Automatic annotation (TrEMBL):
<dbReference type="GO" id="GO:0030148">
    <property type="term" value="P:sphingolipid biosynthetic process"/>
</dbReference>
<keyword id="KW-0732">Signal</keyword>
<protein>
    <recommendedName>
        <fullName>Very-long-chain (3R)-3-hydroxyacyl-CoA dehydratase</fullName>
        <ecNumber>4.2.1.134</ecNumber>
    </recommendedName>
</protein>
<keyword id="KW-0812">Transmembrane</keyword>
<keyword id="KW-0256">Endoplasmic reticulum</keyword>
<feature type="transmembrane region" description="Helical">
    <location>
        <begin position="119"/>
        <end position="140"/>
    </location>
</feature>
<keyword id="KW-0175">Coiled coil</keyword>
<feature type="transmembrane region" description="Helical">
    <location>
        <begin position="160"/>
        <end position="177"/>
    </location>
</feature>
<keyword id="KW-0275">Fatty acid biosynthesis</keyword>
<feature type="transmembrane region" description="Helical">
    <location>
        <begin position="184"/>
        <end position="202"/>
    </location>
</feature>
<keyword id="KW-0276">Fatty acid metabolism</keyword>
<dbReference type="GO" id="GO:0030497">
    <property type="term" value="P:fatty acid elongation"/>
</dbReference>
<dbReference type="GO" id="GO:0005789">
    <property type="term" value="C:endoplasmic reticulum membrane"/>
</dbReference>
<comment type="similarity">
    <text>Belongs to the very long-chain fatty acids dehydratase HACD family.</text>
</comment>
<dbReference type="InterPro" id="IPR007482">
    <property type="entry name" value="Tyr_Pase-like_PTPLA"/>
</dbReference>
<dbReference type="Pfam" id="PF04387">
    <property type="entry name" value="PTPLA"/>
</dbReference>
<dbReference type="InterPro" id="IPR008978">
    <property type="entry name" value="HSP20-like_chaperone"/>
</dbReference>
Length: 332
């Protein structure tokens, strides 16, 4: 156990408890030139490290005012720098700063930078509020009505879900024009996949709108976005909140497969209805006289659905390793 008090240009006083009991340790150093009044102290299991910073960055002929080195001092040659080494180190730092300034000056300044950032913040905020409303509304109704809330989810939530998913088309545009660094294909797969389920499979069939599967689709979608949009919104202003980052890149692991499964169940349930009604079926003119059933296209879509889930799962897994995986140290 070691407790100590340090006064610059005065003395260090420490009290330690060892094999011989309590002992007082003290030494005094009068530095050659002024130093910063608050040194950095670090106690390890083996030693006490005290880092004292010079007030002015210049070369000292020696450490102390007295010409003869104190007997209790010994240089650490692993950290030793002579005058030429110190000057070289300072010169390298100055050159590094100059090169950095030159590189920054070459990069053309974007006059619309703040406008773009403001747009992205507002977009993510609006989407977060929209999906938060959906999630809270569905959760409250589930607690109050129980399973009965499954059957009228669409009629209660549809307008807000239509708004959020239509607005989500901007994510494709943002990626396409380079406003965000997100890859285009995962954005296209997710946005068009969801909108196909929402507008075509559910929205066009009244028989599907009262199915319990609609509740699970909307619920999985909203939970996912509760963490995604606030994460992107804070990223726009350079803020990273680690719990939110963890949630953003972890909750999708169960939610994406569950959401994909719910969408697949929805498609399977709609196939007999589309076959019976013939809705969206395409009749080819003579002499072929063939009708392409929309239900057949839905069976093909099921394969594309699981491929889309795989594409997004792979993309998010790479992002998770990048943000939550162990950081690689650069070799000097």
């Amino acid at each position: 156990l070691l407790t100590f008090t340090l006064t610059i240009n005065s003395c260090l006083l420490a009290q330690g408890h060892g094999a011989k009991g309590d002992n007082i340790y003290e030494f005094q150093i009068e530095f050659l030139e002024p130093v910063e009044p608050k040194p950095i102290c670090r106690v390890t299991q083996r030693q006490l490290n005290i880092t004292v910073q010079k007030k002015e960055s210049n070369w000292w002929e020696r450490l102390t005012k007295q010409e003869k080195r104190p007997l209790f001092l010994a240089p650490d040659f692993d950290r030793w720098l002579d005058e030429s080494d110190a000057e070289m180190e300072l010169k390298e730092k100055e050159e590094e700063k100059i090169n950095k300034m030159k590189i920054e000056s070459r990069v053309p300044k974007d006059p619309f930078k703040h406008l773009k950032k403001g747009y992205l913040i507002m977009y993510n905020l609006v989407q977060f509020l929209g999906f938060s409303w959906i999630f809270v509304n569905m959760t409250v109704r589930l607690f109050i009505l129980g399973k009965d809330s499954f059957y009228d989810t669409f009629h209660t939530i549809a307008d807000m879900m239509y708004f959020c998913q239509t607005l989500a088309l901007m994510e494709i545009m943002n990626s396409l024009i380079g406003l965000v660094r997100s890859p285009l294909i995962p954005a296209v797969v997710q946005v068009f996949g969801r909108n196909f389920i929402l507008f075509v499979v559910i929205g066009s069939l009244e028989e599907m709108q009262s199915k319990p599967v609609v509740f699970f689709i909307f619920y999985f979608w909203s939970i996912t976005e509760l963490f995604r949009y606030p994460y992107y919104m804070l990223s726009c202003i350079g803020i990273e909140w680690k719990p939110l980052t963890w949630l953003r890149y972890t909750t999708w692991i169960p939610l994406y497969p569950l959401g994909g499964l719910a969408e697949a169940v929805c498609v399977v349930q709609s196939i007999p209805i589309f076959s019976e009604t013939g809705k969206f079926s395409l009749g080819l003119p003579n002499p072929l006289n063939v009708t392409i059933q929309f239900s057949f296209l839905l069976q093909i879509y099921l394969i594309a659905l699981f491929l889309g889930v795989f594409v997004n799962f792979r993309h998010l897994y790479k992002q998770r390793k990048q943000h939550l995986g162990p950081k690689k140290r650069k070799m000097k």
